[in-house]
Design goal:
single chain, 366 residues, alpha+beta, 22% strand
Length: 366
Amino acid sequence: MEHALSPSTLAELRRPRPYPAVSVLTPTHRREPDNAQDPVRLRNVVAEAKKQLEADPAVPRERRADVARQLDEALTEVDLAHAEDGLVIFAAPGEHQVWSLARAVPERVVLSDTFLTRNLVSAQAAERPFWVLSVSPDRATLWNGGVDRVAEERLAGFPFTRDHRENFDAERQERIGDVPSTFRDEGTRHFLRDADAAMARLLREAPRPLYVTGEQAALSLLEEIGGVTGDAVHVPHGGLAHGTPDAVWQAVRPLLEAETRKDAATVARELEAARGRRAYAAGVDELWQNARDGRVRLLAVEENYRVTVRDDGGDHLVPALSGDLDAREDIVDEIVEQCLETGADVRFVPDGALGDAAGIAGVLRY
């Protein structure tokens, strides 16, 4: 299942396709007993997608069979044992993808000539993704981080490994004093410089905050090299290049939590200042209108804020019930995607942080 959404991946997903491009969304659950319902809901929503394919006269028979086959193949790739909060299946003639999201999605099926990406975009923004690079004299491991986890990521040439002597453990030997600092060795310098160059290429493709873990000597060498890893947030913790995801998560977690608190305080100050100069908006109706006009400079959303609305027949959104024929259950994700499209800074903050703003607020450009 896919997790990381890069700009190039998003552009590819948004590319027009031969009709139908099918998007299947369903909420999932991480823990018992709620996750017991996930297999049934998944089968039912995929069956609904096939039913809509069968009933659509615009879909030729061969194409219908192809897309139904893609949906079946996608089902075999779903790993509900490692489910997060939402699941998205994309299927079109000759292709399919399965995405696991750390953000809830409404249950729905959409047939169009493009895939429905707003929920992926919103989940990416909410997850505040980051990279962790763990370095040692003989290995550089890349970790993909999100709200509550990291996982090893094998791309851009990572993990980097270096040929070494049999039973060679540079970090252990340095800790117990068996050898002089391996990080003064020219071979190690070249190895870390290559890892830095690869990281720089990745950050150009998928920019996000970078944390680097390693022995202090390794971090000092990266500062001397002067690349992107030297400018990153350094975490002096050795052994993680060969470590477990949980060990890496525990090492960076305090820094992430401190950054979250700092970010929420900054957002609160900006919103308060906007009130004073009449550049403040709150609630989905106000924010949706301003987002469509490209007026939102900063959008703040509480992490678990959800609301269902419908169009009142004019220019406003009013509350609706989930399941209503014209209900828009992912209006918050629509607003997030629209704001990102128009260059707004989107911040997700802890629940309750926005006070009387009812879950969503923004600073306007003019």
